[in-house]
Request: fold
Amino acid sequence: MSFNTFGKIFRFTTWGESHGPAIGCVVDGCPPNIKITEKDIQIELNKRKPGQSKFTTQRKEDDKVIILSGVFEGKTTGTPISMIIYNKDMRSRDYETIKNKFRPGHADYTYFKKYGIRDYRGGGRQSARETASRVAAGAIAKKVLENKLGKKYKVIGAVTQLGILGCNTKNWNDKLINRNPLFCPDKSILKLWEKYLLGIRKSGSSCGAIIEIRARGIPVGLGAPIYSKLDMDLASAMMSINAVKGVNIGSGMNSALLTGEENSDEIVQKGKSPIFKSNNAGGILGGISSGQEIIVSFAVKPTSSILISRKTVDKFGKNTSISVKGRHDPCVGIRAVPIGEAMTHCVLLDHFLMNKAQCGK
Reply:
């Protein structure tokens, strides 16, 4: 399998399978002399790890990261940073009954048709378990950008829609997001979301979600206007996350519903700095950051592994049905929040380094 590496200057390569002995990644292109510890990375991994609430899969993984190389005396050396996370709570037997069947809505069918072989235990390489490695890489990117851009730099994500239930993003509260298991930014809807999701789980089904990522303290000038647009790379990063089926930058698809005057973000001079009166562009104009808050949202489809029986075929070409038992997220989008944050850190650092290489700033 090719294409396990993401990025241009700041790159990471992930490896491992859901039910293998371990997963991990190798980060290349990280600047030297950046203070980093396993604890820094663990903080981010703890936001993504399974089994933390009744709203996610009950698979229990510590997701404890071990740094194998690239860090000396608490600082990065500029050499490849290798990290490993051991798998501990695998129940491969849960998948024995479906090893020859293709889950509808899942990558089982296409993966098998392409490679002629698949690891049916939890999805193998195509499992969202792989994303723990991305979060580890994103934690490193975050530390670099905090070092280079200062305390104003911040990336925070939230679930803004859970299945059929949206929220009021005008009530966005950073502190609330990190204090509830659904990463909900709106206190007024949280209890209803909890009741709704427990109902979805009890019925043996699943639901989708929309996640919004906000990046602040971004300088003007990241990105390039043609084949390395900042929004292009952010969209690519989000689409690479398991189960993501759509991405918006700023107003995104809703831009088609606006008139020219409604969509344009007027600019006024205030003191020495220009001020934008709105942010339909999501902080990116012509593929280049404008200095505004960067806003990216993406849609995550419902989890494919559900208890409700569905029609399918097996690898022998016979019609059959499938009901997936085991431990699965009723909404995989919830744990996609720290993954979206991590991918945003990685893209922004990559473009920061490219901009420094070309423009010297």
Notes: The mean pLDDT is 93.
